[in-house]
């Protein structure tokens, strides 16, 4: 049983049970019938990646604007194919409806989603993931102990 203790400690350390909570990153997912936009907010800047739902191909060379808190903001196309937006409205806490408007050639699409800024996103899921990991560690420990006891009992019966 002593040999399990280092493994249990290693599992606890790698899952972040004892680690400090990382800063939450605001994320928005906006969808339409054909497109998916994922935006990640850092301070007052949002990086938006847009892809097609059918083949997950990135959407490049499009004119993208974002309707946020009642104001329409143009985006800047980045070299990696993403689009960026910088505004002080991204630093305001609370929920905000986001409408990403994509115009490419003759096609226009509107992707809608909700951005939650300043909320601890994923914290409940992280605790549940750690709890589930500990459940599996306990299950394997019990199964290992049962196998060890069974093999020990067989050895004692042979002697």
Task: Please give a handful of descriptors for the protein shown.
single chain; 159 residues; alpha+beta; Immunoglobulin-like; five-stranded antiparallel sheet; four-stranded antiparallel sheet; 2 helices; 9 strands
Offer a concise description of the structure.
This protein has 159 residues and is α+β, with helices and mostly antiparallel strands.
How would you characterize this protein structure?
The protein has two helices and nine strands. The protein is α+β, with helices and mostly antiparallel strands. The chain folds into two domains: 54 residues; 92 residues, Immunoglobulin-like. The strands form two sheets. A five-stranded antiparallel sheet has the order 1-2-3-7-6, with no helix packed on it. A four-stranded antiparallel sheet has the order 5-4-8-9, with no helix packed on it. A hairpin with a 5-residue loop joins strand 6 and strand 7. It is elongated. The chain starts with a helix and ends with a helix.
CATH topology of the largest domain: Immunoglobulin-like
* Coarse structural class: alpha+beta
What's the number of extended β-strand segments?
A: 9
Main CATH class of the largest domain: Mainly Beta
Uncertain spans, ≥5 residues at pLDDT below 50?
17-22
Topology overview:
Elements lengths: L3 H11 L11 E6 L3 E8 L2 E8 L10 E6 L2 E4 L1 E2 L5 E4 L7 E11 L2 E11 L5 H36 L1
Antiparallel strand pairs: 1-2, 2-3, 3-7, 4-5, 4-8, 6-7, 8-9
Helix pairs in contact: 1-2
């Amino acid at each position: 049983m002593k040999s399990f203790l280092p493994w249990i400690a290693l599992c606890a350390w790698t899952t972040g049970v004892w680690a400090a909570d990382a800063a939450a990153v605001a994320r928005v997912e906006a969808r339409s019938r054909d497109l998916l936009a994922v935006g990640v907010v850092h301070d007052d800047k949002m990086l938006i990646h847009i892809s097609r739902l059918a083949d997950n191909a990135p959407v490049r060379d499009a004119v993208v604007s974002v309707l946020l808190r009642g104001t329409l903001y143009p985006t800047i196309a980045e070299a990696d194919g993403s689009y960026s937006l910088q505004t002080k409205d991204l630093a305001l806490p609370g929920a905000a409806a986001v409408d990403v408007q994509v115009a490419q050639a003759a096609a226009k699409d509107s992707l809608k989603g909700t951005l939650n800024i300043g909320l601890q996103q994923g914290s409940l899921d992280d605790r549940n993931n750690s709890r589930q990991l500990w459940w599996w560690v306990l299950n394997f420990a019990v199964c290992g102990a049962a196998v060890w006891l069974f093999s020990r009992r067989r050895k004692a019966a042979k002697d």
